[in-house]
Amino acid sequence: MTGWRDSGNPVVPGTAPPRAIGLWGGLSANVLNMIGIGPFVTIPLALTALAGPAVLLGWIAGALLCLCDGLVWAELGSTVPESGGPYHYLREAFGRERAGRLFGFLYLWQTLLTAPLSIGSAAVGFAQYAGYLMPSLGTTGHVLLAAGLCLLNTAILYRKVGDIQRLSLVITVAVVAACAWVVFTGITHFDLATARHFMDMPSPSGKGFWLGLGAVSLIAVYDYGGYNNVCMLGGEVKQPRRTIPMAVLLSIPLVAVLYLGLNISILGVLPWETAAHSTAVVAELMQAVHGAWGGEVAVVLILVASWGSALVVLLGYSRVPYAAASEGQFFRPFARLHPRDGFPTVSLVFVGITSALACFLSLERLISMLMVVQILFQYIAQCFAVVALRRRRADADVFRMPLYPLPIAISVVGWLYLVATSGTSTMLTAVIAIAVGGMIFLWQARRTRTWPFRT
Q1: What domains, with CATH codes, occur in the chain?
Q2: The predicted structure's pLDDT at residue 455
Q3: Residue 311 has pLDDT above 90, yes or no
Q4: CB atoms within 10 A of CB 68
Q5: Which of 74, 256, 257, 258 has a C-alpha 20 to 30 A away from that of 330?
Q6: CA 108 → CA 93, 382, 440, distances in Å?
Q7: Among 8, 57, 11, CA closest to 326
Q8: Taking residues 326-354, what's their average pLDDT?
Q9: Of 317, 415, 426, which Cα lies nearest the Cα of 366?
Q10: pTM of the model
């Protein structure tokens, strides 16, 4: 594999991927990413972290934080509508040949760490729910099924993006309809006595409450995550300065309503103790109402959702190494496009294979590690990137967040709160990852005599 160029100039001959994704395609890419396996396996975790009605505050707080952060993504995506999203936002905001090189590299570094784990987690969730239908699958079978799903999705995505957009739309409609069916079932079979038992549960007080609220909010943010997926595909979006903000800001309240509905439905049908210790809580809800067939149909629909989530997350992340390579900041082969269909080939295959390998790892602490690394590497930096870009650029036709800079302040405070309540070991691991990435960047910069060692 050849090295990368050290100028900021593009190294890829030929044309960029075509702009083929419209509003519905962008919205479906976000929603399908958000409604993956997350809520179906994390609702019990949330109930364990903060028992009692206060758990709903965590879901609401997570939605509000995501809405403020969504305004950050919407403005950045409208201002710099390029594939690879944050890589370009950070470089443009902090100077492409100055500190932006460091921020861009750190984003790429954290993506190489988190992308396989994020995609692999959806695949592992798929395999776990598949075990509900195939109890004899076994541990090895679960791992192989998850890894096989990652490789299958890589093969599916090895084609022009327009075909994937149509497939994404169909799956999104099915997934949203399935969630609506679950919510409708729970509401129409809502038992006041069961719900009252949950509402009468005393919530923790003092430090325990704030730690629990932080844990639930972190879980909620993980589940809501994906509202920014269209930003990863910015260079392939039609009318991006209008489409990207609409896709981001429409997807968050839509999914928030579905998730709150899921929580209320579950807590009105199943005793909260049962829900908190369930490994397939939605399947148990549907089985309690409709019998065995209801649980089995619910599992099939969840499998479709988790497969679709892994598919679109792989689609989005596969564009990040491509974007860096096309800027001359990563290995040149990653900038290769398919000669006929115009999609990144090496980048897609690399992310797909590493995601399959991630399925062989233990992912028990995946949620906290993914979120804290992304918060420290990227999300907080993006808040300041909005401020920097506003000072440097005055494009008249870009989206501007309302109530500026209040959403930015809320986002920064919220992200710092989630990091502070995530646990010492998680924070330490994230800090070490940042330090290692920074040292690699400085070594490369010194070797090539680029910023901050430019002579």
Answers
A1: 23-448 (1.20.1740.10)
A2: 58
A3: no
A4: 22
A5: 74
A6: 16, 14, 12
A7: 11
A8: 85
A9: 426
A10: 0.81
